[in-house]
UniProtKB/TrEMBL annotation:
This is 5-formyltetrahydrofolate cyclo-ligase. Residues 14-36, 326-348 are annotated as: Disordered. InterPro entries: FTHF_cligase, FTHF_cligase-like_sf, NagB/RpiA_transferase-like. Gene3D superfamilies: NagB/RpiA/CoA transferase-like (3.40.50.10420). GO terms for cellular component: cytoplasm. Signal peptide: none annotated.
Length: 348
């Protein structure tokens, strides 16, 4: 595959609207060579992608069920429901509906229950790539969602270390990719979920790594406060908490998001955010860069008393971390309230 399809011009102005950059058609094949510390030659890319899409569909169906349940059981418009979720779902649904109705949404579609891909994602990535904070970073953690694919590409082509999580943390933890270990023709593929599995080096909780910048996907974000809503599964918060535990990040580590201008909102009540909600410091859209100067405290780690036994049961690395802390401290960590997960959300 040719890398020039995701190459960006340094002369593109920050405020311009540009045609989104398209990826070439996916090629399904078994992997014959392992590169950059990635998986062995037995890795089957076609089977991996088929299973990823199956689990993704199941998870989105599950979240749709959860959203409907929470909205029906929550308070009225403008009120906060008992478990603090219904108001978030109302905002998410409004943005997802708006993006589809106004023709902003891009594949994968529909954008509901996803970090939504959008028209101009490439332009937002260019703006992000021109940030001084990005240019100086040596290691950048980027979410695995479609609208941030170009950011992952810029990270690798910029000679930086890319840290990206396994989708929904269901198959592992994080993987590290380095452009110096990749053939130039492989960099574009390395920006995809299959490419991460193929070329990435899986790391564990004991990895000594310093993350200089975090790029996070969003459904909605408030430019006045830095308050952010993701797609509702809480994985970005868990990833952040585990990186805090590892000592890879601290309060000074900036959090950046790239969104469409229509994803900017002014009705996220900061008083109703939870302690583990991650705020953003910088917002990049196709037309502007916004420094939020957020005063919302960043999470300090994993808040075990907010984590349900059912959620813990989904994520092996979290179970391993909990056992480790309990063994080291000799104390039993608290558990959050139980939650009823739809059958399709129960993943091994």
């Amino acid at each position: 595959m040719e890398t020039h399809l995701l190459r960006f011009s340094s002369t593109i102005p920050r405020t311009g609207l540009h045609r989104p950059i398209r990826s070439p058609p996916r090629q399904s094949k078994a992997i014959s060579v392992s590169a950059g510390g990635g998986r062995a030659s037995s890795f089957d890319a076609e089977a991996y992608e088929a299973e990823r899409l199956r689990l993704d569909t199941a998870a989105r169906d599950s979240m749709a069920t959860v959203a409907d349940r929470d909205i029906v059981g929550g308070g009225g418009e403008g009120e906060v429901d008992g478990d603090g979720k219904a108001w978030k779902w109302r905002i998410r649904k409004r943005i997802w509906d708006l993006m589809e109705a106004e023709g902003i949404a891009r594949n994968p579609r529909p954008v509901h229950h996803r970090i939504p891909n959008f028209d101009g994602a490439g332009s937002a990535a260019v703006a992000l790539g021109r940030l001084e904070e990005f240019e100086k970073a040596e290691c950048v953690k980027v979410n695995p969602d479609s609208p941030q694919k170009q950011v992952r590409f810029l990270t690798l082509t910029g000679g930086k270390k890319l840290l990206t999580p396994q989708p929904r943390l269901r198959t592992g933890f994080f993987s590290v990719l380095e452009s110096r270990l990749l053939a130039p023709s492989s960099i574009m593929e390395a920006c995809t979920s299959v490419g991460v599995a193929k070329f990435g080096r899986p790391i564990g909780l004991d990895e000594k790594i310093k993350v200089d910048l975090i790029v996070i996907g969003s459904v909605a974000v408030d430019p006045r406060t830095g308050a952010r809503l993701g797609k509702g599964e809480g994985f970005a918060e868990l990833e952040y908490g585990m990186l805090r535990y590892m000592g890879a990040i601290d309060d000074s580590t900036l959090v950046v998001t790239s969104v469409h201008d229509r994803q900017l909102v002014d009705d996220i009540p900061t008083a109703n955010l939870l302690i583990h909600d991650v705020p953003v410091d910088i917002i990049c859209t196709p037309t502007q860069v916004i420094y939020t100067n957020t005063s919302i405290p960043k999470p300090q780690g994993i808040y075990w008393d907010k984590l349900s036994p059912e959620k813990l049961g989904q994520i092996r690395v979290l179970r391993d971390l909990k056992r480790r802390i309990e063994r080291e401290t000799g104390q039993t960590l608290p558990s959050g309230p139980s939650e009823k997960l739809p059958p399709t959300a129960r993943r091994k």
